[in-house]
Amino acid sequence: MFVLSLCFFAHFVLGSTPQPFPPHLANFSTACSEFEPLKYVSNATLNVHEFVAAGTTLHFPGTDPSCGTANQTVSVDICRIALNISTSDRSGIIFESWLPRTWTGRLLATGNGGIDGCIKYDDINYGNKNGFSAVGSNNGHNGTGGSAFLHNPEVLKDYIYRSLHTITEGGKNLTTAFYSAPANNSYYLGCSGGGRQGIKAAEMFPEDFNGIVVGAPAVNFNNMTSWRASFFGKTGASTSPNFIPASAWQGFIHDAVLKQCDAIDGAVDGIIEDPTLCDFRPEELICSSGQNSTKCLNEAQVEIVRSVLSPLYGSSGELVFPAMQPGSEVQAVQGLYSGTPFPYSLDWFRYVVYNSSTFDDTHFSVSDITAAQALNPYNVQTYPSNLSNFTGTHKGKLLIFHGQQDEKITSFSTERFYNHLASGMELHSSQIDDFFRYFRISGMFHCSSGPGAWMIGQSGSGSMSFYPETNILAAMVQWVEEGIAPDTILGVKFVNDSVAKGLERSRRHCRFPYRNTYIGGNASLQRSWECMLYE
Ligand SMILES: *[C@@H]1O[C@H](CO)[C@@H](O)[C@H](O)[C@H]1NC(C)=O
Ligand SMILES: *[C@@H]1O[C@H](CO)[C@@H](O)[C@H](O)[C@H]1NC(C)=O
Ligand SMILES: *[C@@H]1O[C@H](CO)[C@@H](O)[C@H](O)[C@H]1NC(C)=O
Ligand SMILES: *[C@@H]1O[C@H](CO)[C@@H](O)[C@H](O)[C@H]1NC(C)=O
Ligand SMILES: *[C@@H]1O[C@H](CO)[C@@H](O)[C@H](O)[C@H]1NC(C)=O
Ligand SMILES: *[C@@H]1O[C@H](CO)[C@@H](O)[C@H](O)[C@H]1NC(C)=O
Ligand SMILES: *[C@@H]1O[C@H](CO)[C@@H](O)[C@H](O)[C@H]1NC(C)=O
Ligand SMILES: *[C@@H]1O[C@H](CO)[C@@H](O)[C@H](O)[C@H]1NC(C)=O
Ligand SMILES: *[C@@H]1O[C@H](CO)[C@@H](O)[C@H](O)[C@H]1NC(C)=O
Ligand SMILES: *[C@@H]1O[C@H](CO)[C@@H](O)[C@H](O)[C@H]1NC(C)=O
Ligand SMILES: *[C@@H]1O[C@H](CO)[C@@H](O)[C@H](O)[C@H]1NC(C)=O
Ligand SMILES: *[C@@H]1O[C@H](CO)[C@@H](O)[C@H](O)[C@H]1NC(C)=O
């Protein structure tokens, strides 16, 4: 079975007939050096202009070390254009446009993450490798922090929507000029903060993309930022007496979550297919008298677990953000449950909401929620209830995926967004299916990795092939260009995430509201599961 699953990874590439070469690109390196990019992008200056041969490792010495992207090995021959684009007298974008020798007529714009300004070179290369002309940017500032936002609304504007729109336009201009033909279709790929960028583009610039693929979108941004900031107050500092250590979350608490909820989908395999069905009861972990406390909780700690896994409510009891899904504790101990302020939220409150680098969220309260919501710069909130300009007039398609063990943005938020859009557009899920599908990726952490079949083509490192059945970006291309929508996405997981060690599991992930259900046989095989609709 594994052999059978593996064989289609080897060769199939969507749109595998490369287009005839435009004659002027026959000598690609010459065509690259003779190209004049500054003619096609406004307000730009040149940083880099070079032909890069396949296999070359590019180095980015100027990149902020917090981004952790010092180099990128390029998979195919490209013409690399890096520009500075000025967006105002107080802001600018570092822009990369990589034009591959073998072009399929497609453009791919890539997003960022968190509140960061880190270029995803890996995603740009992933696009090139599959024939896209690809663009990315630093989203208007460098590094993972938010200090560049302080007293600079122009930098904020770039981050919230202007940078992506500008690079998409710039990328289209360069693509048209370089290949002497416009891109036939343009796509977007981004996760987390990059997910929010994609939804914002659908909302504000419905003509920018034909297909938008986003993971774990940071929509409902102000409320999500508050939700993240609220954990520190719930867990207490790591030095506080009832602080629950990582070993407890990762050990007996996670075990108890699995014991209560793993079998709901029919298979006990360490993966909860639908965490919305998991109503975890931590009280069973209260220490009995004389029990070794490394395996149980006191009453105050049980309350902490309960509160950490509860939704965030506002001053009048209204829902601010849904609960963290149970199952994600193994990874959440490194961030939200770590007993330290969550950096992205801290910086947002410091540099955007309060303009004060001394703000600290030790005493985070509902007044902070209100302040973040009231400011809502450039509608960063990103919670559209009607995307019909994108999906109707422009026939745009939207695919969202969300890991069901996401430790940074609860997947319950995406389900809520789906329902919000469905009710805002007055559509049933069978109608929403015409332009928007949401895939719940069981056993996947934030954007990638995890014990589940998490490789679904969401990034270069998360893809084995460019086959629509197994690759969410290829599925989008097929949907846009051939009208065939994906019903499932087949994900894979390799032993220790090493291809050489062999396949550990494969599973077809279902589109919401279908639910993956075990129907018998070896649970690590895709054929042992079926997508079912429960009313
Ligand atoms: C491409 O052009 C360059 C510079 O004119 C030249 O050195 C090179 O040999 C050419 N390559 C091919 C394959 O014609
Ligand atoms: C793209 O080209 C158009 C037409 O030349 C120009 O008006 C526009 O400013 C360009 N876009 C960018 C981002 O440079
Ligand atoms: C590009 O812009 C940055 C500021 O965003 C500036 O520091 C750098 O010098 C610029 N580079 C060029 C070549 O203009
Ligand atoms: C951002 O990084 C680029 C290099 O990628 C550098 O040229 C630029 O000066 C940096 N900008 C700021 C404001 O530090
Ligand atoms: C690329 O950067 C990584 C660290 O991010 C480093 O481990 C690796 O050695 C670098 N590769 C090259 C070829 O410089
Ligand atoms: C170019 O920059 C100026 C001022 O910095 C700005 O007003 C204008 O909109 C920019 N043009 C484009 C196409 O972005
Ligand atoms: C773009 O679409 C046109 C018309 O369908 C087609 O002729 C052309 O081959 C496509 N270009 C590429 C590069 O695929
Ligand atoms: C509790 O269990 C831990 C680890 O299993 C052990 O190291 C410790 O000595 C035990 N404490 C008591 C009081 O039994
Ligand atoms: C965001 O939080 C506010 C409370 O500050 C609440 O009124 C609003 O409904 C929330 N929005 C969403 C989409 O959750
Ligand atoms: C922070 O600055 C922004 C403008 O940059 C302003 O809109 C906001 O009201 C300021 N916040 C506070 C708390 O002063
Ligand atoms: C659709 O676009 C029109 C024209 O730009 C705009 O007036 C309208 O508000 C948009 N509708 C939505 C739901 O965004
Ligand atoms: C959604 O927006 C479109 C375009 O603005 C509008 O025509 C339509 O009536 C809206 N749908 C609903 C249910 O409000």
Automatic annotation (TrEMBL):
Presence of keyword Hydrolase? yes
Q: Which domain of life is it from?
A: Eukaryota
Residues spanning the signal sequence: 1-15
Question: Does Phosphoprotein appear among the keywords?
Answer: no
| MF terms in GO | feruloyl esterase activity; metal ion binding
Name the enzyme group at the top EC level. hydrolase
Q: Which reaction does it catalyse?
A: feruloyl-polysaccharide + H2O = ferulate + polysaccharide
Q: Which Gene Ontology BP terms does the record give?
A: xylan catabolic process
Record key words, sorted: Calcium, Carbohydrate metabolism, Disulfide bond, Hydrolase, Metal-binding, Polysaccharide degradation, Serine esterase, Signal, Xylan degradation
The catalytic activity of this protein is classed by the Enzyme Commission as 3.1.1.-
UniProt lists the family membership as follows:
Belongs to the tannase family.
Q: What name does this protein carry? A: Carboxylic ester hydrolase
